[in-house]
Amino acid sequence: MARYTNNDSEYDAVIVGAGPNGLAAAITLARAGKSVLVIEAKETVGGGSRSAELTLPGFVHDICSAIHPLARASPFFRSLPLHEHGLSWIEPPVQLAHPLDDGTAVAMYRSIEATSENLGRDAKAYSRLMTPLVRDWRTLEEFMLGPFSPSQILRHPLALTRFGALALLPARPLANLVFRGERGRAVFAGMAAHSMLPLDRFPSGAAGLQLALLAHAVGWPLALGGSQTIVDSMASYLKSLGGEVVTGVEVHSLPELPPAGVVLFDVTPRQLTRIAGEELPAMYRRRLGRYRYGSGVFKVDFALSGPVPWRAPECTQAATVHVGGTFEEIAAAEKSVWQGRSPERPFVLVGQQSLFDTTRAPSGMHTLWAYCHVPSGSTFDMTERIEAQIERFAPGFRDLILAKHVMGPRQMEAYNPNYIGGDINGGVQDLRQLFTRPLPQRVPYRTANRRIFLCSSSTPPGGGVHGMCGYYSAKAALRDCL
Hints:
Layout: E1 11-16, H1 20-31, E2 36-40, E3 51-52, E4 61-62, H2 69-73, H3 75-78, E5 89-90, E6 96-99, E7 105-108, H4 112-117, H5 123-135, H6 137-144, H7 150-155, H8 157-167, H9 171-178, H10 182-192, H11 204-217, E8 222-223, H12 228-240, E9 244-247, E10 260-265, H13 269-276, H14 282-288, E11 296-304, E12 320-323, H15 327-338, E13 348-351, E14 366-374, H16 383-393, E15 401-407, H17 409-415, H18 431-434, E16 452-454, H19 468-480
Parallel strand pairs: 1-2, 1-10, 2-9, 10-16
Antiparallel strand pairs: 3-4, 5-8, 6-7, 11-14, 11-15, 12-13, 13-14
């Protein structure tokens, strides 16, 4: 057993997993005056928020999460002095660019008006859609970034009804309802595809609305130096509160842990049942066994000799580029994935952080972060198809490639066991598992063992670097046990 500094007495809480949610849980408990130990299997903290030199020396790539609107929006992150522990945000002038085959691109700006101006015939429709939602942001923030509670609707009936009536629609009928032109439909499809659901399936429209709302309300920033700095700053702050972090120790069973009042797991239901074993009732384990995981991702990181030569100039002003073309093309790609097929023309999410952060690559050179959705556990190599999609909108891109690093679903799961089959969201986020993950119960962070809590993205509000799953899980532990 690894040695811990608190071996002579019981910890108030042990947290297994040092991703953003595990660290958020630890910070919440430490701020409440509790003794806390975080145990991480990898040599560094991070989970889905790590960075590393994956291709060539001097090229720093974000391994999973790269652009962080949810971190900027998170009430929990806002409450932390992470700037005192090394975290700085960079916000590009364009939040998102979506190139089209005519050589132009739809650009999302912080300003609704500026965004509307490049949507053509959909300008007024977009403004009518987004203006009231942005006005209601502080109310909607609680709804989006926490567990569902009927009291939220009672407190804010108009704002939540206005948002919910649209958000619960699939992306296709929502786009048909709001937009008449291809530009508005295309950019909305790209945002909705973040749901990793077919665009005719509930509630894929919610992802599109949420990401558009975040673009205007808080922006889509990146972390100076890499996503690793987010979790490094969290770990530093936790240690300043007296919390302890141990890395390089994999937990296989509960008896391996030091004595603690409660244990919080930043893992998915599959790992929880394996680690907790007989400490959880058999019926509860069977229910967790029915938890559903979603599609995987196939990711390629590139080291480039220069910036991507996009035809549309707006793409050079954005850290995030959605490469997929029209609504129908993106919808077809996401439907293929859901049906177990690798799309010929995948929807590719592209991050070009080095355009705005010179620490990411040697002078004059650049990194490029790109991934697409694929069937769970797929072994098909999507590298060529990802490159072809980028080349389609940036002729000459391939000529800039110095090196590349590839991670398919199996490699993603080996890197982070929470990514079952390459699922980076900790489970499907459809209607059945949107508010009731991992199981339908009043406090979703509790398990059938009063000492064991779940604090991962398999609990509300789900995937993303925001820390809210860990925050709410820790609050539940404080109410119930500590």
